[in-house]
From TrEMBL:
One cellular-component annotation, GO: cytosol
Region named Disordered: 428-466
Taxonomy of the source species: Eukaryota, Viridiplantae, Streptophyta, Embryophyta, Tracheophyta
Keywords, ordered alphabetically: Golgi apparatus, Transport
Residues annotated as domain TRAPPC10/Trs130 C-terminal: 1017-1097
Positions with biased composition (Polar residues): 446-464
Domain of life: Eukaryota
Location in or out of the cell: Golgi apparatus
Keyword Transport: yes
Organism from which the protein derives: Miscanthus lutarioriparius
Identification of the protein by name: Trafficking protein particle complex II-specific subunit 130 homolog
GO BP terms in the entry: early endosome to Golgi transport; intra-Golgi vesicle-mediated transport
Record's keyword annotation contains rRNA-binding: no
Length: 1108
């Protein structure tokens, strides 16, 4: 395993780029490790070069392509042609449909296209190699992952595969993928190292291990930290983090390095605490300090503050502050151990940090080294010279503790080779240090009651202490300092603990406390000077700064005086009005709870909590709020003004702002501006989110929680037709619209209905609104005031409908009456006059616009198509011809609507040239009325007619017969066509439908006959010419003997998608007027498609017009 790790680490340390393994070159003078050819012609290529090339590229594991180098000069035609032939043969042999393997380089030609082609093929090779290797590694990793809980599991094998894959991703600049592999490797290692089993070494005992290496993955070789089938935890966790940080820096994510680093230091510090008794003295504290300082330095050098948003910048500096704070606390702990605790400020922050931080827990507390008596005396002098430090401005406060427990007691308790000793000696030491007011013995306990203990072990030469006496505090400091010198390997770090001066220098780099007390002492004098010098702007700023200091530094009357000065100056006539920054006095934050959510285009009201640091009420003449888009560093939008003046009371205030429509996105609070009197002010102070009842003036930092979310544009309402089937043409019908709100109130909405051409809305009728059937149960459960089956009638004016309030949150069905107008005459269908129906014939368009929202700012527009149709489709045919010359005419009625039709009467008014038989009243031969026709059903009606004489044949041909159908309809408006809406009371329910029928007189005595002759071949083929032949024969001599013209006009009609006519499509042919004369018409055609197709048709357009 060590050999594999060594090989892997060697490859990783030496390879920092992708290595291209092989390329093949073919040319007139070929040179490669395996191939040489001089002046190859086509035969030499086929017999010599091609077999050798095939042998080289037959390995599928290799990626390859061939570069053909041509030295042929353009003036040498023979060489140029030969080079082209060889390259063409090369392409034919080695290129495939999926991939081109060859490219050509002409030494005497342009090389731009070649290098583009060369780069493309090289990239393809690299990509394919990478894909193949990634697939291989992923399969191996998957196989090993399945064995993780088996006895044969070996983490080192898994690590080599996993990091090899990450390394390949890193070389390919796929840093995100590489980072993902390291994250997964870290999780897998955590499971392996925490699994129960044999004891594993933790590490951390080598020289220099006290210095954290979170940013140096090459600090130790992997072979040095391997142990059996896993790595030592101390080194390996730092190695993994260093690899992750390296990738994050390449991705320009310094903030994430800081965030991950802080979490890692805190978590790893807890791990070090578990192994503290096996590590050097204070090893944990030293490691944390060096880790924090290393992270601060590295992330600061990589951080680019010019390319990040304000939120990210604030987050970065917050993390830097957290690292500094953690480093500072650990540094103060070390200083306290070696006797510098007297120089540490006993502030609330320091007390809270150090008193909660436990003492080091070594297996044995360090002993005093020999020849250290002089150092002990120096420590005792330092302790005896300590005086209680007086606060500024003669403020005396009770000293706050900096210890979790008494150091004297803790150190002696951990001296494993000594007994606890006499308790009185722990407290009755001559220096009296190490005690505080709360740790002294009670007065009723005397020394005689204390139990005397002596140690049972022998004395050693390592210490001059008698074995029965505990260590004194000065001796503890000296022993700790000498132990730290053995732990700390960095001389510069040890220098910062070598003296009080060096400690204070480093301490001041990590802390900034006590400045408010200094300002409270200096600022009043500065403000007085500014007032004498009539520096109004400076004096105003000083008063605001005094109000911003800790309220405990000044009395209430003094703070009220400061506010009085600010208000007086704000309302006075200042010579130079300057904007006032009150970020430390007036802070603001969004209210607790979820942010205000608005739809795109909607206004709203945003409530903001504003904290006032003024001691008394203060009036703001105006107040404005700016919002910042959370995805941009720019504050971005126009200030939102509050309409009224406001009086801020000390503490928390709630102020509402009317928000105009904003762009979609999340918004955080930006800045608060306004006016106090004539003075404008601005605040960037962001209060931390706290409980709603909190009235404290809270410190400020930029919030990350949005206060306003504007949703992206989405559908807020949907309007669809309630019925998709056809309605009756020319009749007053109900049209239903399903109006569905999508999580949005339609209260106060106005629906505009604009009827299109040939469509009329009957505004004299009331529209009807009801709850949609599928939404009935939901509406009843959500709103008890809505009655089941409620239908409300409301008027429509100028195409506008105002929706009722109860319909704002439920799906409703809106019914309004319309009439589709069609003035054309409806015609029936017959074999002689077929009708071509179009889908759009009965379509009518209705434009809808719904205005809704609080200010009708939301608009929904849609155009819907409504289908109207006639109640019947009528067709005719002659079913029989009687011996007496009568004709049996069948009229077929087919229902076109989804409703039941009741035919009550039918009357046929015949055109000239035809007459009824029998009664002659135009009624059918058999009376079957009333006739009921179901939806999509047919019914047939028979009429007995015969031919009659006519004076004008053309007039008879152009005339129409009219069919009058009296009918009724039984339908439901929810499914389609229904009974028309009565306009007046008492309107008849009977309807009349008229349709024109074209009847053509039959040809009883034909003059000509046309026949299609069979093909000369049995099989027709696409693209093959074929002759189409028709025979025309005269059956009788024309009745009009004066006609001498014997020419007949013919015309060939063919579908151009199926046939191509190669001959003449029309022309004249000669046909004698004698009975029995005949002739043939031949036209050459070509079939264009295969299958069953209609052949071309021959027509005689003029036959019938003349007396042929």
């Amino acid at each position: 395993m060590a050999n594999y790790l060594a090989q892997f680490q060697t490859i990783k340390s030496t390879c920092d780029r992708i290595v291209i393994a092989e390329a093949l070159t073919v040319g007139k003078s070929m040179h490669s490790p395996d191939l040489t050819a001089l002046q190859p012609d086509l035969d030499e290529f086929k017999t010599i070069l091609k077999p050798r090339l095939k042998l080289i590229v037959q390995n599928d594991e290799r990626e390859w392509f061939i570069v053909f180098v041509s030295k042929a000069h353009p003036s040498n035609d023979q060489a140029t042609k030969m080079a082209k032939k060889v390259y063409a043969r090369l392409e034919a042999d080695f290129n495939t449909k999926k991939r081109e393997r060859c490219c050509k380089f002409d030494l005497h030609g342009s090389d731009k296209e070649f290098w583009d082609d060369f780069d493309s093929k090289m990239v393809d090779c690299i990509r394919n190699t990478l894909d193949r290797r990634v697939q291989f590694y992923e399969e191996e990793i998957r196989r090993l992952s399945e064995q993780r809980f088996t006895p044969i599991w070996n983490f080192c094998n898994f690590f080599i595969l996993k990091e090899s894959l990450a390394f390949m991703f890193e070389l390919s600049n796929l840093h995100e993928d590489s980072l993902r592999e390291y994250d997964e490797l870290e999780l897998c290692y955590s499971e392996s190292v925490n699994s129960p089993g044999k004891h594993r070494e933790f590490g951390g005992l080598d020289t220099g291990d006290d210095q954290a290496v979170l940013l140096n993955p090459g600090a130790k070789a992997l072979t040095q930290i391997v142990q059996d089938d896993v790595f030592r935890e101390f080194e390996f966790r730092q190695y993994i983090f260093a690899c992750q940080a390296k990738l994050l820096f390449k991705l320009s994510r310094s903030i994430e390095v800081a965030a991950r680093g802080y979490a890692f230091v805190v978590g790893f510090s807890k791990t070090l605490a578990l192994h503290e008794n096996a590590l050097p003295f204070c090893f944990r504290e030293v490691w944390v300090i060096t880790a924090c300082l290393g992270l601060i330095k590295s992330t600061s050098s990589h951080y680019d503050d010019g390319s990040v948003a304000i939120d990210s910048e604030k987050e970065f500096y917050r993390l830097q502050g957290d690292l500094y704070s953690l480093c500072r606390v650990k540094f103060m702990r070390l200083a306290y151990l070696i006797g510098y605790g007297v120089e540490i400020e006993k502030s609330p922050v320091n007390s809270a940090s150090l008193s909660m931080l436990p003492w080091p827990k070594p297996a044995t507390w360090p002993s005093i080294p020999p020849d250290s008596s002089a150092e002990i005396m120096e420590k005792e002098k330092m302790i005896l010279q300590v005086k209680s430090r007086e606060k500024l401005f003669s403020i005396h406060r009770k000293p706050l503790p900096l210890e979790p427990s008494l150091l004297l007691r803790e150190a002696n308790r951990r001296r494993a080779f000594l007994s606890v000793g006499n308790l009185s000696e722990l407290y009755d030491s001559s220096d009296g240090s190490g005690l505080d007011a709360n740790s002294k013995l009670p007065p009723h306990r005397s020394a005689s009651n204390s139990m005397t203990r002596t140690m049972s072990g022998p004395a050693t030469s390592e210490t001059s202490l008698p074995v029965d006496r505990p260590m004194r505090l000065s001796e503890i400091h000296v022993a700790a300092e000498h132990a730290l010198k053995q732990t700390i390997s960095d001389p510069d770090f040890m220098t910062s603990l070598s003296s009080l001066e060096e400690f204070e220098k480093r301490y001041m780099e990590l802390t900034k406390e006590g400045w408010e007390e200094l300002l409270a002492d200096v600022l009043p004098d500065l403000a007085e000077c500014q007032k004498i010098l009539n520096d109004e702007a400076g004096y105003l700023a000083s008063c605001v700064k005094l109000l911003s200091l800790d309220s405990g530094l000044f009395s209430s009357k003094e703070r009220q005086a400061f506010q009085s000065e600010v208000v007086q100056l704000a309302h006075s006539e200042m010579k130079h009005l300057v904007p006032l920054d009150v970020s430390s006095l007036i802070t603001f934050a969004g209210n607790a709870g979820p942010p205000l959510e608005l739809c795109d285009g909607d206004p709203g009201t945003l409530s903001v909590a504003v904290w006032s640091g003024f001691p008394d009420d203060i009036t703001l003449e105006s107040l404005s709020l700016r919002l910042s888009a959370s995805s941009s560093a720019d504050e971005g939008i126009k200030a939102i003004k509050s309409s009224d003046s406001h009086v801020l009371v000390p503490g928390r205030n709630i102020i509402s702002f009317d928000i105009p429509p904003q762009k979609p996105g999340s918004y955080v609070l930006g800045a608060l501006t306004g006016q106090i009197g004539k003075l404008s002010f601005r605040s960037h102070g962001f209060s931390q989110d706290g409980p709603v009842e909190t009235d404290e003036f809270i410190s400020f930092e930029k919030p990350t929680r949005p206060v306003l979310k504007v949703r992206k544009p989405r559908a807020l309402v949907d309007i669809t037709p309630a019925v998709s089937s056809a309605l009756l043409m020319n009749e007053l019908q109900w049209i239903g619209l399903i109006v569905k709100s999508i999580d949005y109130s339609l209260k106060g909405g106005i629906l505009h209905i604009d009827a299109g051409a040939e469509l009329k809305i009957e505004e004299s009728q009331m529209i009807e609104i009801e709850i949609y059937g599928s939404d009935m149960e939901c509406a009843n459960s959500a709103n008890g005031s809505i009655e089941a089956g409620k239908v409300e009638k409301i008027p429509i004016e100028n195409g506008k409908i105002k929706l009722p309030d109860w319909a704002s949150d439920v799906t409703t069905l809106v019914w309004f009456p319309v009439r589709a107008i069609d003035d054309t005459i409806t015609r029936g269908e017959s074999p002689v006059s077929p009708q071509k129906q179009s889908v759009v014939d009965g379509m009518r368009m209705i434009a809808l616009k719904l205005e809704f929202g609080v200010f009708h700012n939301q608009v929904f527009e849609r155009t819907i198509a409504v289908h109207f149709t006639n109640p019947f489709h009528v067709s005719t045919r002659v079913v029989d011809k009687c011996n007496d010359g009568g004709l049996l005419l069948q009229v077929i009625l087919r229902s076109e609507v989804k409703a039941t039709l009741h035919v009550k009467d039918v009357r046929l008014d015949l055109q000239s040239g035809f007459e009824h038989l029998g009664k002659g009243d135009g009624r059918p031969a058999l009376s079957l009325f009333p006739l009921v026709i179901a939806p999509s059903s047919k019914a047939g009606i028979l009429f007995m007619i015969r031919l009659s004489g006519t004076k004008d044949a053309d007039e008879a041909e152009n005339a129409d017969s009219m069919l009058n159908i009296t009918y009724g309809i039984s339908g439901d408006r929810t499914t389609g066509a229904h009974s028309p809406i009565p306009i007046k009371p008492g309107d008849s329910e009977e309807l009349l439908f008229k349709i024109a029928l074209k009847l053509k007189r039959p040809v009883l005595n034909p003059c000509l006959a046309v026949g299609f002759l069979p093909f000369s071949t049995a099989c027709l083929r696409v693209g093959q010419l074929v002759n189409m032949r028709w025979r025309v024969e005269r059956l009788k001599t024309p009745e009009d003997a004066s006609i001498s013209v014997n020419e007949i006009l013919y015309q060939v009609e063919a579908n151009p998608q199926n046939w191509m006519v190669a001959g003449r499509k029309c022309g004249h042919v000669s046909l004698s007027n004698e009975q029995g004369s005949r002739m043939e018409i031949t036209v050459t055609c070509m079939p264009l498609v295969s299958g069953y197709v209609h052949p071309p048709q021959l027509g005689l357009p003029e036959v019938g017009r003349g007396k042929h």
